[in-house]
């Protein structure tokens, strides 16, 4: 395994577990196993740990400045999420990209997320429109500075707002799970700058339909958005 470049996602400082000033005191200390989980997951999602790459628990722990136990806990959690495989006597491997799995996720997203958008349109409040507007403004700023990781987080915030507005907690849970399973594919897709601009325009179309409380237009805009993602990422992974 190459020597990993360990940089912390969001506000996680390497080995410190400290949140920025202004966070509630109870949120400031992050358990070591959670630090390890966040950083390793971040590296897998952003392909710094490449699909199919072998990971060595001791080397990862050394690079993180942690003992092996929190790293072991983190890797076990990532195995449950399907991001790594752990085989006795064979070691740890970042799960390879699987086009068949991607198509299954997209199929599930199309059914569930389009209907969630349809439900949300009938319930969308001015506050939720304002929340989407804020996300879209931040997305435009991230696009200008070519910040793919920020766009990935904002993409999740956009879709989570709609899932929550559907009024159905089951939809929210299903779509959160699908997002977590698809996040590596989304990062690969968003690495392409032309697609970043397309995503912003597609999100604006969804927002406009929701603000107008047009259920069918919202569902159609969401379907078009998911279809564009499918086409782009399948092209990029050569499937």
TrEMBL record:
Keywords: DNA-binding, Transcription, Transcription regulation. One of its GO terms (molecular function) is DNA-binding transcription factor activity. This is DNA-binding transcriptional regulator, GntR family. It comes from the Bacteria. InterPro entries: GntR_C, TF_FadR/GntR_C, Tscrpt_reg_HTH_GntR, WH-like_DNA-bd_sf, WH_DNA-bd_sf. Gene3D superfamilies: GntR ligand-binding domain-like, Winged helix-like DNA-binding domain superfamily/Winged helix DNA-binding domain. The keyword Transcription applies. SUPFAM superfamilies: GntR ligand-binding domain-like (SSF48008), Winged helix' DNA-binding domain (SSF46785). Coiled coil: none annotated. The lineage of its organism: Bacteria, Pseudomonadati, Pseudomonadota, Alphaproteobacteria, Acetobacterales. Residues 30-97 form the HTH gntR-type domain.
